[in-house]
Amino acid sequence: MFRRFLGLLLSVALALLPALGMAQTTFTMAGFDGENSTRDWATNGFFSRMEARTGLSFTFEQYNDQAKWQAAKDAMFAAGGQLPDVLFKASLTTDELIRYTDSGQLIDLLPLLEENAPNLWALLQANPDWLKAITLPNGKVGALPCIQQLPAQNAMWINQAWLDKLGLDMPTDMESLRNVLTAFRDRDPNGNGKKDEIPMLFLGPWELKFFGHAWGVTANDYNIYLDDQGQVHYWPQEDSFFEMAQTLRDLYADGLLDPDGFVTADTLRRVTDSKAAVTYGAFFAPSPISLLTYGTSSESYTVMGPFEYEGKKVYRDLVGPITRGTFAITSACEDPAELLRWVDVLYTEEGAIEAMVGVEGESYYFREDGRWDWVGGVETLGVSGLSQLTIYDTGDMPWLFPLEFNNRYYEDNVERMNAQLEQLCQYAVQPFPTYTLTTEENAYVGQLQMQLGRYVDEMLARMVLGEVEINQETRAAFQEGLVERGVEEMIAFWQEIAQR
To answer: Cα–Cα distance between 423 and 434 in angstroms, integer?
Structure first.
């Protein structure tokens, strides 16, 4: 009798374990670590440190190829697909977030944040625009963000070492920029006796349109901007667009713009040999490290500020502080609260620093001057060592980037470059307010953009190359082409979005 009673008691106790707060500790995770990643999540120090902090562990489905990750997402959300508990570095598009929160396959995180992610919730309450940016039209939050207090910008970097050597001032308008680029072309600033300098690099029509700041214009990838009166403008319809095209045409004709700018790829422009002769005068990039080795880029290049137009300086804000779609929890997860408490660590300074560089005294230390360095030096760690120690440098992860700590790296050029980007940020203007489109809206405007965007970029390239003369006749024909391809519908669409 006693044994039967004891057995019954144990059965009831086991049945009550979930209700009594028995938390799940092992989860399945899938994600995209970035095209250039060489790390293995299963052995990466970040996940080991997070397990020590939180008690949670994972089995991984990791991707380093964007196409394969997209295919994997499509498969797991398809009928009969097997969902992981959580998507990390999820690279979820707005359309995916809307579709999968509507279907219930991604859970709405908004009701759970205040209780289970208090650090992130405090940031969102202090910055309502951030919460607005991650909230979908259906009112749900399908994924958590990467927050960069110093947002990435496609800044103009110029070779300060060449300016100093040639006794030139920083350009302040297109005329002085022309003079500087001419000197870069003719006066052998790299001192190798060859005429191998490329005065100004660019990557296709997209980057050339960043010169709009010289005419007081910041247009987005749809070529639109919103004026102070709330009116939508389609920039290629305006005089300033053609004035810019003519100016760039003159620079190109004089050999001051990269002759391969319309045919090259970003990977082909990267210089990996620190001993190679420097040939780049100026270029657009989030950081000069994007194109050059660390020593060359950090020591030689300076941000060129926007040019003044009618008493104001503006520059296009590329992405803003929020990157959406980085961390989502699926309907397969039985304990979303535990995963939110896990990720909330990354929205604290302490947690973000540990994610970035590991544990103080083990992987990094503070020097007597208050700056930090890697234990044994970065050379000792090597690329493979860094790859397995940290996880932040490829793909977009959910966290608050520890900018202040990053600035305290012993190489003061890091802080110098960040300070210049912060200076640029004071002029950064969003061409259009933060918005989120429904799936139907996204499909509609995407179709318009396929016709209009390609037409605009092709015409700009042909004008700069000199294949099309810039005169009243060609301008009129171009405007007719815009109308035929739906420019009036494009303007009306964005006007409606602006008003809502």
So the answer is: 22
- Nearest Cα neighbor of 153 from 415, 392, 425, 413 is 425
Ordered alpha helix ranges (H), 135-203:
160-166, 174-186
Q: For the segment 44-101, what is each residue's pLDDT rounded down to a tens digit? A: 999 999 999 999 999 999 999 999 999 999 999 998 899 999 999 999 998 899 999 9
Buried b (16+ CB within 10 A) or exposed e, 150-188: bbbbbbbbbbbbbbeeeebeebeebeebbebbebbbeeb
CA distances from 307 to 155, 156, 198, 313 (A): 13, 11, 22, 6
> Up-side HSE of residue 304: CA atoms within 13 Å toward CB?
30
**CA 70/CA 32 separation, integer angstroms:** 9
Rounded to whole angstroms, the Cα distance separating 123 from 343 reads: 14
Measure the CA–CA gap between 322 and 144, rounded to whole angstroms: 10
Distance of alpha carbon 471 from alpha carbon 193, whole angstroms? 40
Listed in order, strand segments (DSSP E) in 113-166 are 144-147, 155-159
- The pTM of the full predicted model, rounded to 2 decimals, is 0.82
